[in-house]
Design brief:
By secondary structure, the chain is α/β, with parallel strands linked by helices. The protein has two domains: 151 residues, NAD(P)-binding Rossmann-like Domain (Rossmann fold, 3-Layer(aba) Sandwich), CATH 3.40.50.720; 268 residues, 2-Layer Sandwich (Dihydrodipicolinate Reductase, domain 2). It is built from 14 helices and 16 strands. Strands 14-13-12-11-7-10-9-8-16 form a nine-stranded mixed beta sheet, sandwiched between helices. The chain has a seven-stranded mixed beta sheet with strand order 3-2-1-4-5-6-15, with helices on both faces. The protein is globular, with a radius of gyration of 23 Å. The termini are far apart. Bound molecules: 6-O-phosphono-beta-D-glucopyranose. 6-O-phosphono-beta-D-glucopyranose (BG6) binds next to loops.
């Protein structure tokens, strides 16, 4: 179908880092010949500046439209500019600060830019807490029905996140083991070596809990826990994830830790900032299949490495044993099983060995944003978060947010430090 992709925030950080490269790639692959991009900007900018390194690949199908986002009249002009034809769809991609989203959604709706061939792509965070998420979802629902709304959680679109489901559904040996009978605990980690990287204003309003834990970490956990029916259809994935999220118990703040990297306050120019750049928490599920299995979710910036993984630890029959399975979401995408084997030599010693596969260096894995755009254009919704998932995730985290508004301590850690000691400093075994 012919598609017009209208990007609000084309000059922003996300568009430049993720969207334009992803678009350049899918265009290069020839997946969408009939695609036009309209970049919306508040300021007069020239196309060369906007497209930067992607000018050669995207210039022929892009135009830049300048408007005042706060002026409802300008949306009528935008509507004339888009001039949607019967055989066309329009995707409105809101890559804007969270506090601008509702206003743009409302103005699009009031200008009639919410017809059956219009779709809305929203970037997180979807609210700041449970109450604001309800409000944001209700505001959106006043103008767009749920089918038209694509809430992006790009971690769901990562190749290895999708592979958690494929791997679980396709390998009987693990399907048999996938319950509290054989699994002792689960860890989900999203560690970053970078700090806040010039996004001080955004980060000061967000913090690690809202930025990564509320969406990315809970969704990776949901993919690990969700029930896999015999006739798995990807269209049912959001409902299955929701089932897993609903079974998770509301967080216990005493099983969480928040921390900030040293130097953060100087970097953002706020010497009293209590914003966490690191969070770790332990959750439990009341699904009988997962009772007694602690699940630790951890994320942080300015750590010693970039690493996102889901680690599933199997129960031991004696203290000497230990086995785990790791989904390496990034980098070095792949799956590994840690086994104990005999160490070669005369003494009967034991050593850890890995059974693993990693994609070879010449396998190109699509970037998550390529998948997101491709799916939205083709109306595939399985890798987008529904409003119910968003609400449930906030419900789970609400007690932690409440405790942080009170006097729960903030720890500090050195830039380049490792995650383990920070987790241990706050959550005692
Ligand atoms: C984004 C967060 O959602 O994910 C960023 O807003 C974070 O703070 C980024 O750096 C990490 O994404 P990725 O794909 O590089 O792991």
């Amino acid at each position: 179908m012919k598609t017009k992709l209208v990007i609000f925030g084309i000059t922003g950080d996300l568009a430049q880092r993720k969207l334009l490269p992803a678009l350049a790639h899918i265009i290069e692959e020839g997946r969408f010949e009939e695609l036009n991009i309209i970049g919306v900007s508040r300021h007069q900018v020239n196309q060369g500046q906007v497209l930067g390194d992607y000018y050669d690949k995207l210039n022929h199908l892009t135009s830049v439209y300048q408007m005042d986002l706060g002026n409802p009249e300008d949306y009528h002009c935008l509507r004339d500019y888009i001039n949607q034809q019967e055989d066309e769809q329009t995707l409105f991609y809101l890559s804007v600060p969270p506090d601008s989203t509702s206003q743009i959604v409302e103005n699009l709706g009031l200008a009639g830019l919410n017809g059956p061939s219009d779709k809305l792509l929203l970037e997180k965070p979807f609210g700041r807490d449970l109450a604001s998420a309800h409000q944001m979802i209700d505001n959106t629902a006043a103008f767009f029905n749920e089918e038209q709304v694509y809430r992006i959680d790009h971690y769901l679109a990562k190749e290895m996140a999708q592979n958690i489901v494929t791997f679980r559904a396709s390998n009987a040996i693990f399907a048999h083991l996938w319950s509290n009978q054989y699994i002792e605990r689960i860890e989900v980690l999203a560690l970053e070596a970078i700090g806040v990287e010039g996004r001080a204003a955004f980060y000061e309003q967000t913090g690690a809990l809202r930025d990564i834990a509320q969406g990315h970490l809970l969704q990776l956990l949901a993919l690990t826990l969700l029930p896999i029916p015999d006739d798995l259809h990807w269209d049912n994935l959001p409902a299955l994830r929701l089932k897993a999220l609903r079974a998770l118990e509301i967080a216990d703040p005493s099983r969480s830790v928040r921390a900030q990297y040293e130097g953060y306050r100087d970097e953002v120019g706020n010497h009293e900032s209590m914003v966490e750049t690191f969070v770790s928490m332990e959750l439990k599920s009341n699904d009988p299949r997962w009772e007694r299995v602690p699940m630790a979710l951890t994320t942080g910036k300015a750590l010693d490495r970039k690493k996102t993984e889901v680690r599933v630890h199997f129960r031991r029959m004696n203290e000497a044993q230990s086995n785990y399975l790791v989904f390496h979401i990034q980098p070095n995408e792949g799956i590994a099983i840690d086994l104990l084997t005999k160490k070669p030599g005369y003494d009967q010693e034991v050593e850890h060995q890995k059974l693993s596969y990693m994609y070879s260096s010449d396998t190109r894995l699509p970037d998550a944003y390529e998948q997101v755009l491709d799916d939205a254009i083709n109306s595939r919704k399985s890798l987008f978060a529904t409003s119910e998932e968003v609400i449930r995730a906030w419900e789970i985290l609400a007690p932690i947010q409440d405790a942080w508004n009170g006097d729960m301590p903030l720890e500090f850690y050195p830039v380049g430090g490792s995650a383990r000691p920070i987790i241990q400093s706050g959550i005692k075994a």
